[in-house]
Amino acid sequence: TGSCTVTATRGDEWDDRFNVTYAVSGSSDWTVSINLGSGQSLQNSWNATITGTTGTLTARPNGSGNNFGITVYKNGNTTTPSATCA
Predict the structure, then answer these.
(1) What is the architecture, at CATH level 2, of domain 5-85?
(2) If 0-12 CB within 10 Å is exposed, 13-18 middle and 19+ buried, where does residue 33 land?
(3) pTM confidence score
(4) pLDDT tens string for the chain (86 positions)?
């Protein structure tokens, strides 16, 4: 781990779910914590290894670089999940 930052960008959106992409800078050996909102759950992910489906997710590099994304089921909550990097 090292000093890193993560930026979230909202992507495509559908009736029941939406995409968020995360860009990590400052490190290639990172751990990103993603805080899903109340009712939200993970539907899909790409370019990272994600642990968890609700609450706080943990993302780690899987060899696909420092940009990854998730698809989140809204369940009435349209808030973009915040993320922190360590």
Answers:
(1) Sandwich (2.60)
(2) middle
(3) 0.94
(4) 458 999 999 999 999 999 999 999 999 999 999 999 999 999 999 999 999 999 999 999 999 999 999 999 999 999 999 999 99
